[in-house]
Amino acid sequence: MTAVEMPPLRHSVSPLAWLRKNLFSTWYNVLLTILALGLLYALLHPALHWARTEARWGVIAANLTLFMVGQYPRDQLWRVWLSIFLLGALLGLSWGIWKNAARGFALIALGAGLAFALIGLLLNSNVWINWLLAVALLIGFYALGRILPIGRRFLVTLSWLLYFPLVILLIAGSRFIPFLSPVSSNAWGGLLLTLMITIIGNVASLPLGIFLALGRRSKLPIVRYFSIGYIELIRGVPLVTVLFMVSLLVPLFLPLDVRPPDAVIRAIIGFILFEAAYQAENVRGGLQAVPRGQYEAAQALGLSGPLTMAWIILPQALRVVIPAIFNSFISLFKDTSLVAIIGLFDVLRVGRSVLAQSEWLGTHREVFLFAFFIYWGFNMAFTYGSRRMEEAMGVGRR
Amino acid sequence: MALTAFLRNVRVLQILAQILFVLLLALAAGFLYANVTTNLGRQGLTVGYDFITNPASFDIGESYIPYEPSDSYGRALLVGLVNTLVLSVLGIIFTTVVGIIAGIARLSSNWLISKLAAAYVGVIRNTPLIIQLMFWYFGIVLQLPPVREAVALPGSIFLTQRGVYLPKFDPTPTVESWRVFIWIALVSIALIWFLFRLIQNRPGQLIPLWAYLAYIVVPVLILWIGFVIQPEPPLKENLPVLTGLNFRGGLRSTPEFTALLFGLVVYTGAFIAEIVRAGIQAVSGGQVEAALSLGLTRPQALRLIIFPQALRIIIPPLTSQYLNLAKNSSLAIAIGYPDLFSIAGTVINQTGATIEVIVIMMLSYLSMSLFTSLLMNIYNSRMRLVER
Which residues in B lie closer than 8 A to residue A37 (C-beta atoms)? Predict the structure, then answer.
């Protein structure tokens, strides 16, 4: 007997049949459809009317730079652009090498770059050249990545590890580098501030979270109870209270002769302390997913406890928690908006200062909708990219 | 020799490690404590709770317990705590309803309904709550028409930029004699529940759906008898009426409270919708098939087989969403609702008692969280799968 492979049956559905099946299958579905349509009309009609006629979108165009970088010195903006160019190049290179894993992020960046260039053109701003350059870099390095020999590919991983510290150095500057004059973190603002807090907060909270997770599973009761106490305390209180506490208490906790760090740094400390508790729970989930046999096998091979953790357990555990870490990245990105409460100039706070300008009084809806779309667009893009990456890496399946 | 052996003993090493850990902690704590006392000493401040009985002398916009500016700081903090609690409890009730409806809507066979629910969940979950709150407050509630041109909804509900006016019910003098009937009605509900349980626990017995009407019919009947005996109703409706420049009577929900409650409910509802959807989808299809092959109808299978199992999956994440709602209510400060966090901030500004007030605030939130998880854990252990 030979098995004949048949293509799956495909039936095309006429639009009318589709409507009947999906919208009007039963009497209550007919009712629901009509109700939903009515609701949509009642909401969308006035909203669209407002957006087309009454809304003053000029408030966004006039303050776009402020929304993006806040009070960052305008003559130093090249550092921000350089970070974007580097990101474009790295994304292109990764796309060329790892294809599927990085494709989602690269395509999103490509689309976003082109869209921003178009917006720049429409607003008669010169930034469109910069965005096109970033896109060109992305495509150029994609081609380079395709021909890069396999043996050199670890260099790309290395560049990613170096990229984030480099960006922090670029943005913050340093006294020791002549052409990178220090920019006080108080001048960081807008989307730039949001992204800086997100990146630093996530990168720095992960190691702390790993330690807390290991502590929570430790055999030493004192270490275990300390970790449990810390994690549950932080998870039981709102983020604002942690931020508030850190921004008020850090100056009190430091010795008299030490100058307290800037408000931004204090906020970042608060985020790290807060996020670490949540990362610890993520990592703990991953640790629990590693089967006992792995510990026993490592022991049988003669590895010591710490070595077992570092070389056998953690690599497997962290791989399992990649989706959870991506999720905390998104939630931290959303949570950064709370820094407005402790007085930092993120997108939201910039929006409120714009609203105080006399010519833009009463443009609340425009400003908040804009902030809304920044977060929404970024999160959707990030979700899409990370999901493609997880699929390509087989996270959760292998 | 003996010493090396002693030091290589795992148990000894463990104890030594812990002693080291405690020492390090104590050292860090001592360092911080010394710094705090010198820093505070410099500013002429001491740590202590003496300030708590001093008059607060600031006004609070809304309060559910009597409060005067001449009351103490402790009382002011209590007002904040009660405001937070009222907001959280109302929010949890409403958001559960919104979340369940949206979660079921996402699974609807109606394409439009499920896409609408998906859009709601996708947009709300991916944007920060604080921006949503500001949009609802500054962009919607404060842009409502002034009192004189209030939007009137059926049932004497008025939307104005000064808040939402709702009808309210005041007790009348007969409320005392009515208490008996209300109690009897409540007891009857409990009795019906008990009776249904007894019937359902017997094999092969199923209560038909219409019998659940008893939950409504019997109490209404009892209250109706009450009306025959005591014709004077226990509650009198108190409708908001526009008199002059403002509404008189009724219940007023301030713009801050309205926007905050609405924002929290809409935000948390989107998360609960996902939990409900995932919970229902997680019940394996075999369960439905088994139920149908046993002769249950589809609604029966949904009610008796799917929901109880889905609930088991839903409760733990639902608990953390309830906790999130309570914690997120601290964003009230962004739009000026006097919750615990915002009043604590004011108290710190006035007294300089930073550490003391932060401790009070943290402990309040923490005990709220722990209390909620305790309640939900009790419920969860009752619903949990009883394994053989």
Answer: 112
Q: Which residues of chain A does B30 touch, with a Cβ-Cβ cutoff of 8 Å? A: none
The B residues from 30 to 59 touching A (CB cutoff 8 Å) are: 32, 35-36, 38-40, 42
Interface residue B18 vs chain A (CB under 8 A)? yes
Q: Using a pLDDT cut of 70, give the percent of chain B over it.
A: 98
Q: Which of A36, A237, A371 sits opposite B116 (nearest CB)?
A: A36
- Minimum Cα–Cα distance from B33: chain A residue: A253
Cα separation values, A326 from A93, A149, A330, A396, Å: 21, 30, 6, 14
Task: Find out whether B363 and B107 touch, Cβ atoms under 8 Å.
Answer: no
Of B96, B236, B82, B117, give the one whose Cα is nearest residue B174: B236
Q: Considering CB atoms only, which of B22, B109, B123 is closest to A222? A: B22
Residue B219: how many other CB atoms lie within 10 Å: 19
The verdict on a CB contact (< 8 Å) between A220 and B36 is no
Picking from A29, A240, A249, the nearest residue to B341 by CB comes out as A240
A278 and A328 in contact (C-beta within 8 Å)? Answer: yes
User: Read out DSSP for A299-340?
Assistant: HHTT--HHHIIIIIIHHHHHHHTHHHHHHHHHHHHHHGGGGG
- With cut-offs at 50, 70 and 90, classify the pLDDT of residue B60: confident
Contact B327 A23 (CB under 8 A): no
- ipTM comes to 0.85
Cβ-Cβ contacts under 8 Å, A240 against chain B:
330-331, 333, 341
For chain A, which domains are there?
A: 74-168 (no CATH), 197-345 (1.10.3720.10)
- pLDDT (tens digit, 9 = 90+) per residue, B178-236? 788 888 888 988 998 888 888 877 877 777 778 888 888 888 888 888 888 777 777 77
Q: Which residue of A has its CA nearest to B334?
A: A341
Query: What is the distance of C-alpha B184 from the center of its chain?
Result: 29
Burial zone of A322 (CB within 10 Å; 0-12 exposed, 13-18 middle, 19+ buried): middle
**Of the partner residues B138, B354, B361, the one whose CB lies closest to the CB of residue A368:** B138
Rg (CA), chain A: 25
Q: Give the start-end residues of each E strand in chain B.
A: 151-153, 157-160, 163-166, 168-171, 235-238, 241-243, 246-248, 251-253
B225 and B180 Cβ atoms separated by less than 8 Å: no
Q: What CATH code is assigned to B73-148+253-383?
A: 1.10.3720.10
Q: What is the pLDDT of residues A49-80, one digit of tens each?
A: 988 888 888 888 888 888 888 888 888 888 99
* From B36, B112, B358, residue closest to A23, measured CB to CB: B112
Pick among B35, B131, B331 to test the A interface (most A CBs inside 10 A)? B131
Q: Which two tokens stand for residue B118?
A: 């998906």
Quick check: A95 pLDDT over 80? yes
Q: Strands B151-153, B246-248: parallel, antiparallel or unpaired by DSSP? A: unpaired
Beta-carbon pairs below 8 A across chains A and B: 153
- Give Cα B83 distance to the centre of its chain: 12
More confident residue, A274 or B384: A274
